[in-house]
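Retro notes (design track)

What went well: tokenization of the new backbones is finally stable.
What didn't: we kept losing track of which sequence belonged to which structure.
Fix going forward: every design gets posted as structure first, then sequence, in one message. First example under the new rule, 381 residues:
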């Protein structure tokens, strides 16, 4: 360990609820399309990938579907069948044997999907029959634009709540250390929050309280299975500023409302992504740079996990300023399975190989070099 990294907060142990973490470095959720296609089942290649990264204080898995209806990305895994549970059990056991901690991200893509992905003659579901105008990953290197979904019925909503509860029970049985609800970006819960996509006139549309209702009903269903100190939520207001997901005058107030209400649940953490899109001239312009972290630090009193575009030196700075308790790294973990060791050594990072982000093989997935092998690209580049 170099003198400059010996006292880094990033590398200090941290008690997350009742879960002791070796450090404050988190592997962020990263969709990598390596699941077995028949059945969306986690496999041995995925096990190798996660074990390589087990020195993280906490791994949060790639987005993992809670049902067939929830699917919206080719090659992503699920966590709602016995075969999927067995696949994940092999991964959690191996990560634990390597000294790591791992939580699963529970995912429903809602209207950001296509009929062939949800399968069996189903149509993607959304809060209203409004096209979100988002790209859909329908193959390893194939995308197409979304279409108009079917508006969710009351029974569809009740079934979705049951699906999240069921998948959280499967996750418990599979040996995970916790669960994270994917409540942000362009997926189901954010679709309900977006007033241009949610035109409902029932108890799930209209007012801010109604548009956030599904997220909290799902959260409470998951809390029927898991203690609150093992449950995290990832939630906005990050917007890609394209198609149906552009920040509107209500975007910040609804996000603030969600964060205030989350204070009541004694959660493990809330995951907050910084804004990556160009916000100039938008209602979220005031949240550019690190401003989102400071803004929501003033609203949410529990643990914040910060993510998106953060380098290790930047993450250390955010921790020292008290803007969060944990730093989640995404792309750095794609190319650097030993990211914690590289931070500790003040070492260089491997360059990214975007052509390997998605695909069925080990190439660009588990074949990155570890320390004591050739390296390039300085750590704070």
């Amino acid at each position: 360990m170099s003198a400059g990294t010996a006292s880094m907060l990033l590398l200090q142990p941290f008690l997350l609820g009742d879960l002791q973490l070796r450090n404050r470095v988190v592997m962020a959720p990263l969709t990598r399309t390596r699941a077995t296609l028949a059945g969306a089942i986690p496999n041995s290649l995925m096990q190798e990938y996660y074990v390589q990264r087990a020195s993280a204080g906490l791994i949060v898995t790639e987005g993992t579907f809670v049902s067939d209806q929830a699917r919206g990305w080719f090659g992503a895994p699920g966590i709602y069948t016995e075969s999927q549970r067995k696949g994940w059990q092999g991964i959690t056991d191996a990560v634990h044997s390597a000294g790591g901690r791992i939580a699963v991200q529970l995912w429903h893509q809602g209207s950001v999907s296509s009929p062939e992905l949800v399968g069996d003659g189903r149509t993607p579901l959304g809060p209203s029959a409004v096209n979100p105008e988002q790209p859909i990953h329908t193959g390893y290197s194939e995308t197409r634009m979304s279409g108009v979904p079917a508006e969710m019925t009351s029974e569809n909503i009740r079934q979705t709540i049951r699906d999240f509860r069921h998948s959280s029970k499967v996750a418990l049985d599979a040996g995970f250390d916790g669960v994270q609800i994917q409540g942000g970006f362009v997926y189901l819960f954010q679709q309900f929050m977006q007033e241009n996509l949610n035109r409902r006139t029932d108890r799930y549309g209209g007012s801010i309280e109604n548009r956030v209702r599904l997220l909290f009903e799902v959260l409470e269903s998951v809390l029927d299975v898991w203690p609150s100190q093992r449950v995290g939520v990832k939630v906005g207001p990050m917007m890609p500023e394209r198609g149906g997901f552009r920040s509107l005058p209500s975007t910040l107030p609804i996000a603030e409302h969600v964060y205030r209400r989350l204070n009541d649940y004694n959660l493990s953490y809330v995951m907050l992504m910084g804004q990556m899109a160009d916000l100039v001239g938008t209602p979220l312009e005031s949240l550019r740079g690190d401003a989102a972290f400071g803004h929501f630090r003033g609203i949410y009193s529990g643990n914040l996990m910060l993510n998106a575009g953060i380098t290790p030196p930047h993450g250390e700075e955010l921790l020292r300023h008290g803007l969060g308790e944990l730093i989640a790294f995404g792309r750095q973990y794609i190319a650097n399975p030993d990211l914690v060791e590289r931070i500790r050594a003040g070492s260089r990072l491997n360059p990214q190989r975007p052509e390997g982000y998605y695909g069925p093989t080990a190439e660009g997935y588990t074949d990155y070099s570890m320390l004591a092998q050739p390296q390039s690209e300085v750590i704070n580049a």
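Added context from the reviewer: The radius of gyration is 20 Å.
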